[in-house]
Amino acid sequence: MSKERTVIDEDVLYEMILEGIQNGFEQFNFTGGEPLYEKKIIISLLKKLAAEGKTPEITIGTNGTMIDDLLLDAMKAYPGKIKFNCSMHAVDEETYLKIISLSQKGIFNHVVGHIQRAVEIEIPVKLNFVLLKGINNSKEYIQKIFDFAIEKRVQTLKFLELLITDKLIYLYDYYYEVDSIAAMFPDDLYLISNEIKRNVYRYKDTDLIIELQKCPCKMGCNTCQQVAGRMLTSDGYYFPCFTLVNNAIKLDQYTQKEAFAKGDQLIKTMGRRYKNGSPLIIQKIQHIKKKKEYYYEVNSTDQNFESWCGVLKNKGANLVMKRTFKEIYFKPQMPNEDWDKNQMIFKVYQNTYNGYKHNHVLAFNKLIEEGGHIYTEVTYLTEKEDARIDDYEEFVKKTFEKKMEITMECNWEINFFEYKGVPFSVGEHLESGMWTLLCEQPFNSEELLGLKSSNVKTNLISFLEKLKLKN
After folding, report:
1. N or C: which end of the chain has fewer CB within 10 A?
2. pLDDT per residue over 56-85, tens digit each?
3. Is residue 241 domain-shared with residue 346, that is, in the same domain?
4. Is 201 helix (H, G, I), strand (E, B) or coil?
5. Which of 107, 104, 109 is nearest to 152 (CA)?
């Protein structure tokens, strides 16, 4: 969210909390921005709640820079459960300063000192780390995070993913899936619980708890009401959806119950629109049995691919998803009549935002001419539950034992759009620099793209081999 906020009166904020308690809420999180800018108000609220015998569970989400003894004393005196969620993102000063975009020397050690002080007086501390590809996501760095937590006697680590919408697409290259961590350390992480919102592990034989937090939006808008909490801001707004800033509900115009009911209607509308999807650009790949694909080769321009996709958005095309991935194609070593007749495809793909997850696809294609256009009918033979590859090296070894060979490797950047109700995708074949367009119906590219395109009239493998030759 980017809405500018002002802080409401402390008494009004306290009444909001009391109303929430009356509505059955037992956990309250003070988040931000940085909530400790209003540290005096938080301390006062803790004292008021304790004085009235109200002891909901309190979590203070902070960057750790403004923790002091006054706050720690107030938290220690609070009779209910209370803890810190401290956003760290790194466990060395150089990486920490790079992530938080500050050059203030000493701030990292300052934060670490505050964390240690909280642990010493037995206030639970959870450290949050947003995974950032190329910065803090390597196996070696994750191990450093584990070691740091054990050394500082931190109770819990939480790993989160970036939330990428079309307005935050510039962050896409940093996105990395938290599930990768479980794959990195299969012998060190012991699953404790598999929840809707997170998977929880114990690290080795220690007391350290590892949470791999799932973004509720990735589960689909139609599940939001089952997994998401209620987000109320200190300036008196309720945000039913944190991807829709302009749909905030002013709480002084409704009771909390009325505001929540109004917000629920918005979430139901989002559920009907997106179903198992969401406004996030990174989404689960939906398993299907059959589809038709019209392929087009696009005449590229002096623009780079990213700039061109920006032009599409400016012309009214809505970006709904983005993928960058690698494909590895296999075929029989010896001539195989059935394989050629059915235009079989056997490939392994890996998304760039998860270096530990591979999937395989087996399908056959059929070229069909209709109304002067050629499309490919693709029938998938791989069941969803069989597609996941747990050990890539072993999978390739067994594939070679079946007398298969690797024929080509392709790297793609693909953006999925919707224009006037028609879904289509545009892709760049990174080896050749060629641009392609794929749609489920004949597509007039000049109207939207401003570029001419030609309908591909060969099967997919032949088309890819053509791109390979242009490399």
Report:
1. C
2. 999 999 999 999 999 999 999 999 999 999
3. no
4. strand
5. 109
Q: How far apart are CA 451 and CA 301, in angstroms?
A: 8
User: Does a structural domain hold residue 281?
Assistant: no
Provide the residue range defining the domain that includes 353: 290-470
In a domain, 5, yes or no: no
- Are 269 and 294 in the same domain? no
Contacts of 282 (CB under 8 A, 6+ apart): 164, 172, 175, 218, 321, 322, 323, 353
Asked if 301 and 406 sit in the same domain, the reply is: yes
391 contacts: CB under 8 Å, gap ≥ 6: none
pLDDT digits (tens, 9 = 90+) for 285-328: 666 788 899 998 887 667 788 888 888 888 889 998 999 999 99
* Residue keyed to tokens 């009401």: 225
359 close to 387: Cβ distance less than 8 angstroms: yes
Give me the residues paired with residue 58 across strands. Answer: 28, 82
* Cα 69 to chain centroid, rounded: 36
Coil, helix or strand at residue 113: helix
Is residue 242 domain-resident? Answer: yes
φ, ψ (nearest 5 deg) of residue 99: -70, -40
Amino acid at 196: I
Where does 96-151 show beta strands of DSSP type E?
125-130
**Which positions ≥6 away from 237 have C-beta within 8 Å?**
3, 248, 249, 250, 251
% pLDDT > 90, the chain: 45
Residues 146, 124, 211, 157, CA torsion sign: negative
Same domain, 198 and 333: no
- Does 227 share its domain with 311? no
Number of structural domains, the chain?
2
Q: Are 330 and 347 in contact (CB under 8 A)?
A: yes
Measured distance CA(113)–CA(449) in Å, rounded: 55
The mean per-residue pLDDT over the stretch 158-168 comes to 88
Among 35, 57, 37, residue whose Cα is nearest residue 46: 57
Within 234-346, where are the H helices? Answer: 256-274, 305-314, 337-341
Whether the link from the prior residue into 61 is cis, omega within 30° of 0, is: no
Q: How many CB atoms lie within 10 A of CB 59?
A: 17
Distance CA 24, CA 230 (A): 12
Name residue, tokens 């009779």.
Answer: 79
Strand partners, 454: 297
- CATH at 38: 3.20.20.70
Region of poorest pLDDT, from 5-19, 228-242, 396-410, 431-445: 228-242
| Interatomic CA distance for residues 13 and 27, integer angstroms | 15
Q: How far apart are CA 317 and CA 36, in angstroms?
A: 41
